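Hi Y.,

Following your request, here is the sequence exactly as I used it, all 302 residues.
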Amino acid sequence: MKKRNAVQKWICAILAIVLLVACAPAALATSYSAKINSSACKVYKSASTSSKVLCSDVKDLRVSITGYSGDWARISYKGYTGYVKCEYLTLSSRLPAYTAKSTPVYKRASSSSSKLGTLGTGSTVYVVGMDDGYYRIQNRSGSVTGYVKSSCLTATKPKTSSDSSSSDSSSGSSSSATGVDRAISVAKSLIGKPYAVSDNPPSSFNCSSFVEYCLEKAGYSVKGSAASQAADSSFAKITGTSSLKKGDILCFDTDEDGTCDHTAIYLGSGSFIEASQNAGKVQTNSLSSWYKSHLLWARRPA
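Below is the corresponding structure, written out as tokens. Let me know if you'd prefer a different format.
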């Protein structure tokens, strides 16, 4: 028994040093780098706690996820393969991808599994793994995870009618329209689109994905969440409502905890446009005294 434990510890020590990285940089990958985030984690021979424990004391070990089985992830490290609970893994990165056609999303890696919904052509998803011909995907916030057939995803966004209509509506009557004008035009063309926490632009939005979508259509690179947008130092920080200009990203603290939880686009003349959870849709709004009192600052695209 002592000899067996000594061998096990030796293997774990070697594994902690070596990381097998198998991500394909130019296309959708078949394995994804992650780190074990808990000292409670054990590596099992198969996807069951009743199977043989291959290794323990593996916190901070970096591994490659090569597949999934329910709530378990199949991992690889230095040629070894084992299984750990998904909750014990922190992904190093997610790979953005796009739906090449109307795409059903399943709860498991099987078309006989229950369906979570259907994504339209050109929808953005984030790939976190692959299992038996299916990609494991998440939405932008990571709050929804499901599976789609690998043939339904592409690394480049296909041209859609929504893109064309947005482009037409946002081009304006003058070819000299500024990026800010274009972003605002795109935003206004989306008025009435539904709000959804599990967003699916351009069919539905949450507050931050609406800001990101509109500004990226105008050529700006905008970070994902409301908190990230508020903290983005690549955009100038504007304090005070008197200094606001159209196109500024308004950063609100609606729950008064000191952090940004809602963003919108300033239209000028005391109004802004937002994807509103309360209204359940994209709408224009007025920078009333309540909104002024909850405005942390603004970020100016440049």
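Confidence is low (pLDDT under 50) at residues 1-27, 161-177.

Thanks again,
Q.
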